Amino acid sequence: MLDYLKSNRREMIAALVLIVLLAVYLGTHPRGASTYVMTIWANQCLILGLAACAQFFAVVVRGIDLSVGAVMALSNCVASYLLDGSAFGIAIGMVAVVVVGALCGLINGLVVVYGRIQPIVATLATASIFVGIALLLRPTPGGAVNYDLADAMTLDVLGIPTAMVIAGVAVIGFWLPFRRTGLGLGLYALGSSEQAAFQSGINTKFIRLAAFTLAGLFGGLAGLFYSFVTTTGDAGIAASFTLNSIAAVVLGGVLLRGGVGSLIGALAGAFILKTIAALMFFSGIPSLAQPLFEGLILAAAIAIGGADVLRARNKLEAFS
Amino acid sequence: MVAQMSDMKNPLLEMRGISKHFGATKALDGVDFVCNPGEVHAVLGENGAGKSTLMKLIAGVLQPTHGQICIDGKAVFLNSPKAALSHGLVCMFQELSLVPDLTVRENLLLGAPGAGIGWLRSEALAKAQDVLARIEGKSIKMGARVADLTLPQRQQVEIAKAMMKRPRLLILDEATSALGASVVERVFDLVREERDNGTAILFISHRFHEVEALADRISVFRNGQRVETFMTGDHDYTEIINMMVGQKIEELFPAKTPAQPDAEIVLDVQNYSWDGRLRDINLRVRRGQIVGLGGLDGQGQSMFLMGLFGLLRQAEGTTAIAGQPTRIGSPKQAKQQAIALAYIPEDRKTEGLILDQGIQENLELAAIGRADLDATDPALYAASLEQLALKHGGLDQPVASLSGGNQQKVVLAKWLALKPRCLLLADPTRGIDVKTKTQIYAILRQLADQGTAIVLLSTDYEELIQLCDETHVFFDGQVVASLADGDLTAENIIAASLNLDAKSRAAHA
Amino acid sequence: MLRGLSLDSLMPYFGVVLLIIGGSFFFPQVLSADYLTQQLQIAAFLGFLATGATVVILLGHIDLSVPWILTGAAILSTALVGTGNPFLSAIAVPAALVFGALIGIVNGIGVAILRIPSMVWTLAVNSMLLGLAVLNTGGFNPKGEASALMKTMASGDILGLPVSFLIWIALCIVLAWFLTRTPFGRYLRSIGFNEKATFLSGVSTPSVVFAAFAIAGMCSALGGVMLAGYANQAYQSMGDPFLLPTIAAVVIGGTSILGGRGGLFGTIGGALFITLLTSILSVMQIEDAWRNIIFGTIILVMLLFQTLRKGDTA
Question: Which of B305, B351, B368 would best serve as a mutation to test chain C binding (most C beta carbons within 10 A)?
Answer without folding.
Answer: B368
